[in-house]
């Protein structure tokens, strides 16, 4: 009988091999992983079980997300096939074109597992950005035509890789030998190419956007960053500086405060000047350097409901306004004050106000006096019938992603606001890649609802408990 490798094992093996490859190419990434592990071990010792409130230490330590950039819908569709082989589906739509003051002419989605059991096995994600050459704010007609011709003439992924990917997705597994070949080809596809870069063409695109040059100025793609997860990102930030590694100016996302961790906090070390061979106008080759890859790290919090996310976005606007009116006060202090004034300070209040997603579970210490359980999840928790566990936020924030991009750009680029931007949304990406782009809120809502249905069954109820009292 031929041994086979299932999708989640392919995903785990791919993440591990990609991590080893990236560590060889970018040694500072290995330092980042080592420091993240040290911080996580220290937090676990200090906090015990509370440190694993948002995932076991085994999951947190293995967790990675990568980021890649492609140039065309055809390339994006091929990426979807490769990640489909790993049990990863496109989730969420992110438009970074207006999320940063610098020129970032890309739209994005993230490929990841979507079922809770698959996320627990290996939660590998890849934030995948696609260039938008048809957006006239960034590319005039002549440059667009040249860029599209360049992109149409390249092949990022060999046919053998795509054929194996399609087989793995269709069958849910690969024979051991085919799996090994698939993994070799897939990792190789995301290595940094040694092919000389056309210096003049790269610089032409770089004047528009460093991101556009990284995507459309070369004949290959590569991992731009690979991100470990850390339990204390502020301590990680401090320790990386002590190792002599230059970090970006701030941590993106929510502030550190006394209440629940929500959504996602991210930071990175600055993009490194890496040696690259450049082809000059006279055809000769010289050694230069390009800054395109960096080392990101993240701390994940509780997934917010649509109402919670709307509140988060309002708070960002409020922080911007108050920070602008108080230039002498650190922005982090402003953010903490705004958070304390407007966001619930406990997980229970976050759930009770319908702002965060939780799963609900029958409590072993529930009342056994013959009383009837209450009809809302909040009361079930308050009276000891059930416990609530926060659902980890598995996705990304456009403004934070753009902030990481912007902090690692060599220049601001150019953007002509005299033109209207090209319309792009999740439905358009779905059409490009011929598969649905899932709504992350729907996934969290389903996970919460399924837990309530199980709880109702265990309580012997004919109806699900109401989710919460509140909006």
From TrEMBL:
Reported cofactor(s): Fe(2+)
Coiled coil spans: none
GO terms for MF: dioxygenase activity
Taxonomy, superkingdom: Bacteria
InterPro entries: HGLS, YdcJ_bac-like
EC assignment: 1.13.11.93
Gene3D superfamilies, sorted: Uncharacterised protein PF07063, DUF1338
Keywords of this entry: Dioxygenase, Iron, Oxidoreductase
Family: Belongs to the 2-oxoadipate dioxygenase/decarboxylase family.
Protein name (database record): 2-oxoadipate dioxygenase/decarboxylase
Organism of provenance: Actinospica acidithermotolerans
